[in-house]
């Protein structure tokens, strides 16, 4: 069989995966705190029996994420927070492990539990919680303060401090749920230098225009590989006809 088929097939497969990454980025262009996924490819020479390269396939290299901070949008909502500069908010995932996110649209359940993306938000004392129905304020260091309904303004109580971490970006791995975790699986230590901005949300760092351009380019690249497969098939049919006539 023509080697061209395998070369074109490996290229088409990787372009399809690249299109999937671009589609996911576009789908999360409005997701607060989302970090764009990156994809990269490398060539893999195939060596023959005599040690010489016979062809070159394509495979994906280690995928990564774009950790460039997104634009900060002021919302005025007391439970909305954004990280200024580097840092992450800690949550507990579905398996009970610690994970990290930049999306700061905090929600409060009926019993006063604070959550992010439906996951429990972590504080220095475990899951973050306040009295149900209390007015909550969040300081620049992540301090949680709550004022109960009907209480005088001077009775504000400190309910703990959000767990803010800042592990090296190279040690972070994105999970299928969109949350980041340390490659070692161990919780990152709290970092007191992380600064929180209350009443704001960090937008996704995805550039929709550039990703749409990438999608068009990837579609054309996929069509090119399909054309190569068709050319290889035509060559095989022509060769078979010549053999039949010989």
Give me the secondary-structure topology.
Layout: H1 3-27, E1 37-38, E2 41-47, E3 53-60, E4 64-65, E5 72-74, E6 81-84, E7 88-92, E8 98-101, E9 107-108, E10 114-116, E11 119-120, E12 122-123, E13 126-127, E14 135-138, E15 143-147, E16 157-161, E17 164-165, E18 172-174, E19 180-182, E20 195-198, E21 200-202, H2 208-245
Antiparallel strand pairs: 1-4, 2-3, 5-21, 6-20, 7-8, 7-17, 9-10, 10-11, 12-13, 14-15, 15-16, 18-19
Can you characterise this structure?
- By secondary structure, the chain is α+β, with helices and mostly antiparallel strands.
- The protein has 2 domains: 3-66 and 206-245, no CATH class; 72-202, no CATH class.
- Helix content is 26%, strand content 30%.
- It is built from 2 helices and 21 strands.
- The protein has a 3-stranded antiparallel β-sheet with strand order 8-7-17, with no helix packed on it. A 3-stranded antiparallel β-sheet has the order 9-10-11, with no helix packed on it. Strands 14-15-16 form a 3-stranded antiparallel β-sheet, with no helix packed on it.
- Helix 1 (3-27) runs antiparallel to helix 2 (208-245).
- The longest helix has 38 residues, at 208-245.
